Design the sequence.
């Protein structure tokens, strides 16, 4: 589940639910990205894996998730992970060959990365039934409820690991893409999972193999051993503090996380300079591939 530091301000989320059909979509840099604003601190206490939430998120909770994903702070336990992910997402999307007129965001969640997508494009967010976010343009359990060759770019960020039939999903990505269109998939590798939920882990080779019939397949590791060590250590502490039920301890945890993140940044620099080789332990993986013309 997605764990965040809360953030502030009330912005009513869109509630557009269209089973198996799309609306016109929105501009990729539109009203979905309005983070880093003040308001009242809130906590988030519901699971956020697809289809698992018992209630919709409130507007402040939704804003908190968006801010923590798109603009992570050093006081977050997963700061280094998200910093690396955002950096590599921006690089991949900036270097993507155009033109990009239509974008599909698969299992879009809170849509925290909309402003990284081409601003001139129309964006369609797809999410599953029972998702708590309320910002998807299409709500459906089908992969994918769209016509052939409908999009120029398909993205699936930190959600592909929950898709049971990955081969079918990649085939569907290819079907809805126009010739020359790009698929972008980002998944965690060195991260915890819930025993009660279905969730996969992929090595880099496995991800590349899924796209072997595509062109220009590129794999990027989003953070190495230093990032993985930091996030796992801080996450262990985060869970321990959660179980104590003592809010005062949680309030000082940010300073501890900031210290761990500083140490992890140093470890990451050491690995980048001295320890890179064929053996790896990435925090996250990002693959891009282009549908043949």
Sequence:
């Amino acid at each position: 589940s997605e764990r965040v530091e809360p953030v502030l301000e009330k912005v009513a989320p869109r509630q557009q639910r269209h089973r198996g059909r799309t609306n016109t979509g929105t501009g990729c840099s539109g009203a979905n990205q309005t983070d880093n604003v003040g308001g009242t601190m809130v906590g988030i206490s519901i699971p956020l894996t697809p289809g698992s939430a018992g209630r919709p998120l409130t507007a402040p909770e939704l804003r908190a998730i968006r801010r923590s994903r798109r603009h992570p702070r050093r006081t977050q336990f997963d700061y280094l992970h998200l910093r690396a992910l955002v950096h590599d997402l921006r690089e991949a999307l900036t270097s993507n060959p155009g033109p990009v007129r239509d974008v599909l965001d698969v299992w879009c969640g809170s849509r925290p990365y909309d402003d990284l997508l081409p601003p001139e494009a129309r964006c369609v967010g797809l999410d599953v039934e029972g998702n708590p976010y309320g910002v998807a343009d299409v709500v459906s359990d089908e992969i994918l409820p769209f016509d052939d060759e409908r999009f120029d770019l398909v993205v699936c960020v930190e959600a592909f690991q929950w898709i049971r039939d990955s081969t079918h999903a990649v085939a569907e990505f290819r079907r809805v893409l126009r010739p020359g269109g790009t698929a972008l998939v980002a998944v965690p590798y060195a991260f915890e999972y819930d025993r009660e939920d279905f969730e996969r882990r992929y090595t880099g080779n496995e991800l590349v193999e899924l796209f072997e019939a595509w062109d220009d397949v590129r794999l990027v590791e989003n953070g190495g051993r230093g990032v993985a060590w930091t996030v796992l250590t801080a996450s262990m502490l985060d869970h321990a503090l959660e179980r104590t039920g003592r809010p005062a301890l949680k309030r000082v945890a940010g300073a501890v996380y900031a210290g761990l993140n500083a140490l992890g940044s140093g470890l990451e620099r050491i690995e980048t300079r001295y320890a890179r080789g064929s053996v790896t332990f990435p925090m996250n993986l990002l693959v891009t591939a282009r549908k043949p013309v």
About this structure: The CA atoms of residues 25 and 103 lie 9 Å apart.
